Amino acid sequence: MATVVEKLIFFVCIFFPRLFYYYIDAIISAFIPAKPKSIAGKIVLVTGAGHGIGKEIALELARKGAKLVLWDVNKANNEETATEIRSMGESATAFVVDVTKTDDIHKTAEQMRREVGDVDILVNNAGILYGGELLKLKEAHIRRTFEVNTLAHFWTVKEFMPAMLEKNSGHIVTIASMSAKSGTAYLVDYSSSKSAVFGFTDALREEILKLGKTGVKTTTVCPSFVSTGMVKQIKDKLMEISTPETVGAEVVKGIQCEEEHVYIPRDLHFGLKLQMFFPLKFVRWLKEFGEQGIVPQYDPNS
């Protein structure tokens, strides 16, 4: 067992110099951003690409020259996104896929590999939100929230990450939520599912590094409220509601700069760090003062 002197030597000779080095590195990174990597010609799969954030991510990726593969359960919406991308002179292939069904994922992935090639960038975006009091939510809807928002990430990563590991090249993007970092009333199931997927990606990143595959990157995105239509009535006096276009642009920027975490708006990251120094009651008061949240919208027949 280490003695007090040995511990002191460790802190003085190893811990503090390393801490100082990483502080300097963080400061430099904050003021001198990384050079964006090119994604031109990369094969990118976006789930939930038929509307909202997924659609805007796909369009922004297409503007950067990526080859898009679009998954959605809604065929008409998905084809509309594909048509818009093709009108830009870029490549888009659309598939109707239910990401909760592993057989569906596997069969479509096999077809993709034959017709398009291996996925270079996987964007797990598909998600659902019911928005109601926990005690009023049906069991089937709670399970569906986790099947789409959380478990689907396991199935897509297990399908597409092996090729990335073999090449030591690739990028896995997770669309989480600020509700993963700060739970919200009437979003108990949604907040929980997004918190789980935030942890999923953090653990996955560490596992990838343990395997020595430094070329495979991960990015977790945490947007605040976004005007996608998933939430019918959003309340927030302190912050502007983001648009899907803004989120799409920030996600692609995060991919190109290989950022581990992207918060939207960007100043939310600083706010989260600052929050650690505030009393919990003050944080709760601030949230109530800003009337941050949603109006219950749950329909048990949906």
What does this 3D model show about the protein?
With 302 residues, the protein is an alpha/beta fold. It has one domain (36-294): NAD(P)-binding Rossmann-like Domain (Rossmann fold, 3-Layer(aba) Sandwich). It has nine helices and nine strands. It has helices at residues 4-31, 52-63, 75-87, 102-115, 139-167, 188-210, 244-256, 267-275, 280-289, and strands at residues 43-47, 67-72, 92-96, 121-124, 170-175, 216-223, 234-235, 261-264, 293-294. The strands form two sheets. The protein has a seven-stranded parallel sheet, sandwiched between helices. The protein has a two-stranded antiparallel sheet with strand order 7-9. Helix 5 links the parallel strand 4 and strand 5.
SSE topology sketch:
Blueprint lengths: L3 H28 L11 E5 L4 H12 L3 E6 L2 H13 L4 E5 L5 H14 L5 E4 L14 H29 L2 E6 L12 H23 L5 E8 L10 E2 L8 H13 L4 E4 L2 H9 L4 H10 L3 E2 L8
Parallel strand pairs: 1-2, 1-4, 2-3, 4-5, 5-6, 6-8
Antiparallel strand pairs: 7-9
Radius of gyration: 21 Å
For this structure, what is the CATH class?
Alpha Beta
* Helix proportion: 40-55%
Question: Would you identify the CATH architecture?
Answer: 3-Layer(aba) Sandwich
Q: Which structural class do you get from the secondary structure elements?
A: alpha/beta
> Runs with pLDDT <50, length 5+?
none
Full CATH superfamily name = NAD(P)-binding Rossmann-like Domain
> What is the helix/strand order?
HEHEHEHEHEHEEHEHHE
Question: Can you give the mean pLDDT?
Answer: 91
Whole-number tally of structural domains:
1
First and last CA, distance: 60 Å
**Can you tell me the overall shape?**
globular
How do the strands line up in the largest sheet?
A: 3-2-1-4-5-6-8
What is the helix tally? 9
Strand tally: 9
What is the CATH T-level topology?
A: Rossmann fold
Keywords: Lipid metabolism, Membrane, NADP, Oxidoreductase, Transmembrane, Transmembrane helix
Membrane topology: Multi-pass membrane protein
Transmembrane segments: 7-24
Family: Belongs to the short-chain dehydrogenases/reductases (SDR) family.
